[in-house]
């Protein structure tokens, strides 16, 4: 099971944090200046200029990527689809980012207080990263099996996704948005044809996995198409005139424009794109691929680590965790070699006790209730937004992993932990506790929901970086041991096994994208190390589709663990775990360099 499938908003934020810069002036300055050098209050003019720029930056991104805004609970652009994959629009984006960067440099950072300097540093970091991504033609790869606009919009059709469908206005907004889908599809096809001519295509295996998704979007009639679903769920409170008008409009849009465009896309992928897709696996095989991958590594980890260094960390972590298996195996009744424990567990029927989806959900609901009694002992800073537990929609179950989606910023939608149950009989029980700690409480929900509730500029409230986001969630899993949730050896195995997955990711991701590993080599390594079968294929193809995204988990987690150990050693009896957690989470998502500087300053203040 793979934690946290990033939303389009999170992916866009990830691209924004594309390059970590060890000599980047603002980050370097922030990390080296003593606290006394930071003014207690910001200069009013400087602060006003910074906050105005930050708001304009967020609004510009919301207009460029309106689906991201929708997923943030910002409904202003729910009737827009966006066309950021169009070359001309992409050029306008980079031009605007250059202008933002120039304006930011004119704001005197030394006149800002500590809180505003964090916003300054993060904004500078994001703009630097955005502009650094300009040479890499990501717009030529608009579709993967993990993420695409048509599937995202289709998942909204039932009214249970990020885009609400409850009022006449909301029905009209969704209709307006999906009516723009044909233009997006035609631009995506044009981009992929450019990629075919320039040698920038997806690996063939990914499109083999993606094609069935687009074929599922097809139908024999408008009325049987998924994009017609809102009409089948028309609220009884709509007037007869509104019902008739909307029904006619949806039928016309779906039948005359959307369905033909979906057929064009599915046909293009099957007959033209798939035959032209590359046989290679990693990003390094593309033109300028090594630099492209290094940029994505910097984005995902907010470090300057190289692929070789991360590969070595992964191998070391795999060995460490397998040493723990040697101790745990006998407690489960296993007496074979440590590396074989996951395979043995996977073959034990007692660890697959479920017959229905409801039985799976019942375990998560019980765990949620237990955590409500334990977490207040570790946290004083808690989100107000509730956490809901739901099953993944059928359309995306085949390729999805259990994941979390954030609450709406306006409070209209809770945070959601989505469990992906394709076959209850094959849903393993051993990893459920650690998974929920990661995706739900106190992992993504405590960080991302709280991030939206802090008094932060919108670009920080809804942005982020993968190393902090996934690093925190993976660190949160370790708290299960302190809460007694891993006293059951089977659940502790699940924790170690999921940690082994994150370590394995460091090996296979860098192996495929930097060391020439094939897809088959990655699947074999994951199968041998983890005992996975079908999941090894799904995970491998995920890393192929999102190069470096999965590296942030372990790198970020290791940094948070390091900072906790440093604080506990320095403060001794004065160390407070709830206070440490509040320090880590209290300013929202930070690049790791800024997080380390913040924790070090807190240690000094406590001494």
Written overview of the protein:
- This protein has 607 residues and is mainly α.
- It folds into three domains: 20-132, no CATH class; 140-283, no CATH class; 296-558, no CATH class.
- It is built from 27 helices and three strands.
- It has helices at residues 8-16, 25-32, 44-64, 66-71, 87-105, 114-132, 149-156, 168-178, 181-198, 204-216, 229-232, 240-276, 289-301, 307-332, 341-346, 357-374, 394-397, 432-439, 444-453, 458-461, 466-482, 489-514, 519-530, 534-545, 552-571, 577-585, 592-606, and strands spanning 387-391, 403-405, 415-419.
- A three-stranded mixed β-sheet has the order 1-3-2, covered by helices on one side.
- Helix 3 (44-64) packs antiparallel against helix 5 (87-105), helix 9 (181-198) packs parallel to helix 12 and helix 14 (307-332) runs antiparallel to helix 22.
- 49% of the residues are buried.
- InterPro entries: DUF885.
- This is DUF885 family protein.
- Keywords: Signal.
By DSSP (H or I, 4+ residues per run), the number of helices equals: 27
Side-by-side strand order of the widest sheet? 1-3-2
**Biggest sheet features:** 3 strands, mixed
Can you tell me the residue ranges where pLDDT is under 50 for at least 5 consecutive residues? 1-36
Structural class per helix/strand content?
mainly alpha
What do the pLDDT scores average to?
A: 90
Oligomer: single chain
Percentage of residues in DSSP E strands? under 5%
Question: Which sequence of SSEs, written as H and E, runs from N to C?
Answer: HHHHHHHHHHHHHHHHEHEEHHHHHHHHHH
What is the rounded Rg?
Answer: 24 Å
Helix content: 55-70%
How many domains is the backbone divided into? 3
């Amino acid at each position: 099971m793979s934690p946290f499938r990033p939303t389009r908003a999170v992916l866009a934020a990830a691209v924004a944090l594309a390059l970590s810069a060890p000599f980047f002036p603002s980050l370097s300055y922030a990390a080296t200046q003593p606290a006394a050098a930071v003014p207690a209050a910001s200069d009013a003019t400087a602060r006003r200029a910074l906050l105005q720029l930050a708001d304009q930056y967020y609004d510009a991104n919301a207009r460029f990527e309106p689906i991201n805004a929708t997923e943030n609970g910002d409904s202003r652009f729910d009737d827009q689809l966006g066309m950021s994959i169009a070359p001309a629009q992409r050029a306008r984006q980079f031009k605007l980012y250059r202008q933002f960067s120039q304006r930011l440099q004119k704001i005197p950072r030394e006149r800002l207080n500590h809180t505003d300097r964090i916003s300054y540093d993060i904004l500078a970091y994001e703009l630097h990263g955005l502009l650094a991504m300009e040479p890499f033609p990501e717009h030529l790869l608009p579709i993967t099996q993990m993420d695409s606009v048509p599937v995202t919009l289709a998942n909204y059709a039932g009214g249970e996704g990020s885009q609400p469908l409850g009022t006449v206005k909301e029905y009209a907004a969704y209709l307006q948005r999906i009516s723009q889908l044909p233009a997006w599809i035609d631009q995506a096809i044009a981009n992929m044809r450019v990629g075919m001519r320039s040698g920038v295509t997806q690996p063939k295996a990914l499109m083999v996995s993606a094609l069935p998704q687009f074929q599922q979007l097809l139908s024999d009639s408008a009325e049987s198409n998924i994009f017609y679903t809102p009409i089948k769920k028309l609220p009884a409170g709509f007037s007869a005139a509104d019902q008739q008008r909307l029904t006619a409009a949806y039928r016309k849009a779906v039948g005359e424009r959307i369905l033909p465009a979906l057929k064009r896309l599915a046909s293009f992928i099957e007959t033209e794109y798939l035959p032209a897709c590359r046989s290679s696996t990693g990003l390094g095989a593309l033109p300028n691929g090594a630099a492209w991958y290094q940029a994505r590594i910097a984005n995902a980890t907010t470090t300057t680590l190289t692929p070789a260094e991360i590969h070595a960390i992964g191998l070391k972590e795999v060995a460490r965790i397998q040493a723990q298996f040697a101790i745990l195996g006998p407690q489960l009744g296993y007496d074979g070699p440590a590396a074989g424990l996951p395979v043995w567990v996977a073959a034990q029927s007692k660890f697959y006790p479920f017959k229905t989806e409801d039985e799976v959900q019942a375990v998560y609901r019980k765990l949620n209730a237990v955590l409500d009694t334990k977490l207040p002992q570790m946290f004083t800073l808690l989100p107000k937004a509730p956490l809901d537990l739901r099953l993944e929609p059928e359309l995306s179950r085949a390729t999805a992993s259990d994941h979390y989606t954030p609450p709406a910023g306006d409070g209209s939608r809770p945070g959601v932990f989505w469990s992906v149950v394709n076959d209850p009989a094959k849903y393993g029980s051993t990893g459920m506790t650690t998974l929920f700690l990661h995706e739900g409480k106190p992992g993504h929900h405590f960080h991302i929901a709280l991030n939206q509730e802090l008094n932060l500029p919108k670009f920080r409230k809804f942005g982020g970086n993968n190393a902090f986001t996934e690093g925190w969630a993976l660190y949160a899993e370790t708290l299960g041991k302190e809460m007694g949730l891993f006293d059951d050896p089977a659940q502790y195995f699940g924790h170690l096994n999921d940690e082994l997955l994150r370590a394995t990711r460091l090996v296979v991701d860098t192996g495929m994208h930097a060391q020439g590993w094939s897809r088959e080599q990655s699947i074999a390594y994951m199968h041998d190390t983890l005992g996975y079968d079908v999941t090894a294929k799904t995970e491998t193809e995920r890393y192929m589709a999102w190069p470096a995204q999965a590296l942030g988990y372990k790198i970020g987690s290791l940094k948070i663990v390091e900072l906790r150990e440093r604080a506990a050693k320095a403060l001794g009896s004065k160390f407070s775990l709830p206070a440490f957690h509040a320090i880590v989470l209290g300013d929202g998502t930070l690049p790791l360099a800024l997080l380390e500087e913040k924790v070090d300053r807190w240690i000094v203040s406590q001494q």
